Amino acid sequence: MSMTNETGMKRPFTDGQDLLPGLSIDPVIFGFHEGQLKILLLRFRGMDAFALPGGFVHLSEDVDEAAARVLYERTGLREIYLDQFYTFGKRDRRDAGTQQTLLQGNGVELPNTHWLLQRFVSIGYYALIDFTKANPTPDPLSDSCGWHDLATLPPLIFDHTAMVYKALETLRKNLDDKLIGFALLPETFTMTDLQQLYETILGKPLQRTNFQRKILSLGILERLEKKMSGGAHKAPYLYRFISPATP
Amino acid sequence: MSMTNETGMKRPFTDGQDLLPGLSIDPVIFGFHEGQLKILLLRFRGMDAFALPGGFVHLSEDVDEAAARVLYERTGLREIYLDQFYTFGKRDRRDAGTQQTLLQGNGVELPNTHWLLQRFVSIGYYALIDFTKANPTPDPLSDSCGWHDLATLPPLIFDHTAMVYKALETLRKNLDDKLIGFALLPETFTMTDLQQLYETILGKPLQRTNFQRKILSLGILERLEKKMSGGAHKAPYLYRFISPATP
């Protein structure tokens, strides 16, 4: 884990009256750094388990707007790739024991009738962000918010592990269809960066020549100057993603 | 429109205490008949507009279980292809005027604080059923439940038209990936039936030889006897869908 911010505790709860009852948003926030696919996780005070950096929906917000706000609150980023992928509605998806431990760890006691302890359905969103631009921020109940390698995911609360893998499945499926992988890269990148990203998401090696031919045939990359390096004659070209030309 | 059932009015409302607040299920139920893709719609008493045959989630049910129950209540069918495709959460997705008209048409008056008049988020499911087996059943507020051609969709209430097209988009996208089209056909079918189904869903003609080669190469069809017809020498083969062989 790296890039962890820590802040003091804020007021943890509203009275829930301005929120949609029983509905939460759980964003799976993907980043890519040094050849690893990463996701942003919170760690709650007093617990070993981690959690997706979720939130609730205000009555005054569209659900999509709530997801964008939650993401902004966690990462400081707006206008990044964000899409719904699945809604999680199992009756027993939040176990009471975990909830109580979580609250006790924060010195909070709530009656069983409290809105926060009712059944919640959660809408999963996945976000793709340029790792170098995100600024992780903990929420009031958690003491850290940071990036974790997807390859060595720690234990997560509730059904959050299933959420992460469902989000990854969607990311894989949409990689070609929607060309969304570029949202995980900085504005300029080398062909090696791009291939490494695809290989990491798909979890398998790709043949270099085929990959390059396929990607270049899509007409979505603009070739820029060469990347500066020690041996200039071997420097790779930098590329930038451009929207596909309309035929 | 065809295959409309009509029944008397039942008790329209519970007090909502046994339901998840603010959450509904709206199934887009696809059938295929005589070369047309069809969906199942309700018509509410006193309204010209139609609606998806939705329902609510009991506290005792997983959301998926609620979707299966709603489907069973409308079609009499269990164990059919049913999958979540999107959750609709715009703040103003249900307009108050339509709601009041709907209730007044049934002679029902509700205070503005009634649970049914609060904001609802709706989870969209799509179902694929063998048209010949469904037995459409109206709900307590509606006076008919029947099949409509997708090509000539009547006006729908709220955001239900957007739901239908989002479901169709998902159906198109999953047609090859998940081989789900067969759920819309009877157990046995001709290659012409199958091609017609694909052409209807995709909204474009397919080249016959290519289509057959591609489908047969998947190893998912079992060829049965020839279909009986007048000119036996021209009778087409019948096929049956089998699960893909594991390599």
Automatic annotation (TrEMBL), chains A, B:
List residues traversing the bilayer: none
Q: What is this protein called?
A: Nudix hydrolase domain-containing protein
Give start and end of each Nudix hydrolase domain.
22-170
* Highest taxon in the source lineage: Bacteria
Q: Where is the signal peptide?
A: none
Quote the InterPro entries the UniProt record gives: NUDIX_hydrolase-like_dom_sf, NUDIX_hydrolase_dom, WH-like_DNA-bd_sf, WH_DNA-bd_sf, WHD_NrtR
Classification via PANTHER family: ADP-RIBOSE PYROPHOSPHATASE, SLR1690 PROTEIN
